[in-house]
Amino acid sequence: MRIKVRVSHEEDTKYASLICKKIQESAKIRGTGIAKKDPEYIKSKMINGNAVMAFYNGKIAGFIYLEVYQNKEFVVNSGLIVFPEFRKKGLANIIKIEIFKLSRKKFPNSKIFSITTSHSVIKMNTKLGFNPVSFSELTNSEEFWKGCKSCANFDILTRNQRNMCLCTGLLYKPSESSYEDKNVQKKNIDNLIRGDKIILAYSGGLDTSYCLKYLLQKGYNVHTVIINTGGFKEEELKKIEERALNIGSQSHKTIDAIEDYYQNCIKYLIFGNILKNNTYPLSVSSERIFHAIKIAQYATFIKAKAIAHGSTGAGNDQIRFDIAFQIICPDKITLSPIRDLRISRTEEIQYLRNSGISICWNEAEYSINKGIWGTSIGGKETLTSYQDFPDEAYPTKLSRKKSENLELEFEKGELVSVNKEKGKAIKNILKIEKIASQFAIGRGIHIGDTILGIKGRVAFEASAAIIIIKAHHLLEKHILTKWQLHWKEQLSNWYGILLHEAQYLDPVMRDIEMFLTSTQKRLTGTVYIILHPYRFHLIGIKSKFDLMESNMAKYGEMNYSWTAEDVKGFTKILSNQMKMYHNLNKNKKK
């Protein structure tokens, strides 16, 4: 089954005579309504794009048009017809919504009215914001009222001087809209029709599985997509695809975004030595914006009308998804069924069971989000401010107790080798993670502020991220000037804050990235590290750009570039303003 409702065009004129015939037959059966329509008049509406056509599996199934009166003061929606064989499929409501949207788009300041004897049409119009009014509040255009002549009840209208009839007058005033003014922010499921294509960000978990089944049962054409930024193994991705297709997804797409994630984010997190609150390497939170960007691009590629995600109303991810979708594909409707319906986990499970989906959704004691840049862990302890996080809750366990050396080589700020073995950055990150996680390195508890202003506590393990950032920072301390280090620290901190706060698409982020890249031109050298259980020790570095290796002077040793008299003169000049300040204070006291 495929329903398609769209604005008319010139090629639709071939249906004009059939539509007029169906309108006349329908009015005859009801014993009321405007029975006669001129095919040429209907054709003019189609050609000018002032009508809405409905099709069911490719066959013409319904129609409605609009007309303008009194110098655009009034717009009327008329001629609603659903062919008998296509009734009771929700078409009339869809057609009414589309003609209403077309009327508002073409004539945003006009009053929209309708007269009808149909209870269902009255109900539909009321939902759109129409109110019942007397005929005196409608257009006084003679041309409009002449159109009622073909109605069987026209004599009732004329006997009452057009003040009343069997029809109910319904009027929509833009300034009093209950549909748009109250729901302008609610570009939601009410704007969709059965058969519309929706992209669902699907992880295979309970929340997104609920969303998938819910949207399918609403009659939408749902396609699922998952973005892999390093948190999934191949077999996990296959199971997720199988689950999506088994539930009913029309198609499933896995998009590998690991390289994009590194090149457009992780690289700058390393360049900036970024740790949120000097603790957390923005492990999973930094991934979400890239998930959102890829999903938005894919939705545009397959021409979806809406994008859905499984966020609740409490976390940060809903903000990251919504902002990215609004910027990258503002024409798409964003759906979040769990957030909008306020569905609980228990209700989700029951709904899926009632729908014949009997997957075991046992609630784990700890929620784990794994990514290439680290893993975040939540549990009952992180919901408090005082409980310690147990060792057994961390996904990787201590398996090596004997210390081990680790050697990292950087070129222009990027990690190019691990233990003298060259490789691409992503491969190197994974290699460090494999080695260091055996020492249970990189564990911690992060306390921070959510985008919505709530304090949050989360455990994490990110051995590769922590080691790389600390090693990179040590190398910078030897190579960069003190003012490079100072301003880098300021801007890097802002970069991390803005990334966390869903501001990745702000152009200032590109500006900061250019600055960070510029600071890495000389950042080449090797860092030596020793790994111990639960910790690591930075031994030192070697680099041809090491400012400590300068032959001008050595800290605490003899220098060869200035004399004692030079230093005396330097201190005299350097202290000038402080001397002025203190001397002025002394004079005031006297």
Please give a structural write-up:
The chain is of the alpha+beta class and 590 residues long. The protein is built from 19 helices and 21 strands. The strands form four sheets. The chain has a seven-stranded mixed beta sheet, with helices on both faces. Strand 2 (51-56) and strand 3 form a beta hairpin. It is elongated, with a radius of gyration of 34 Å. Mean pLDDT is 89; it is low at 177-187.
How does the overall form come out from the CA principal axes?
elongated
Structural class: alpha+beta
Tally the helices.
19
Described by strand count, sense and barrel closure, the largest sheet is: 7 strands, mixed
In terms of topology, how is this protein built?
Elements: E1 3-7, H1 16-30, H2 39-47, E2 51-56, E3 59-69, E4 74-82, H3 91-106, E5 111-116, H4 119-128, E6 131-133, H5 142-146, H6 154-159, E7 168-172, E8 197-201, H7 206-217, E9 221-228, H8 234-247, E10 252-256, H9 258-271, H10 285-301, E11 306-308, H11 317-328, E12 333-335, H12 337-341, H13 345-354, E13 367-371, E14 374-378, E15 404-411, E16 414-418, E17 421-422, H14 425-436, E18 443-449, E19 455-461, H15 463-479, H16 482-500, H17 507-519, E20 525-532, E21 535-542, H18 564-574, H19 576-589
Helix pairs in contact: 1-2, 3-4, 7-13, 10-11, 14-15, 16-17
Q: Brief overview, please?
A:
The chain is 39% helix and 21% strand. The protein is of the alpha+beta class and 590 residues long.
Give short descriptive properties of this protein.
alpha+beta; seven-stranded mixed β-sheet; five-stranded parallel β-sheet
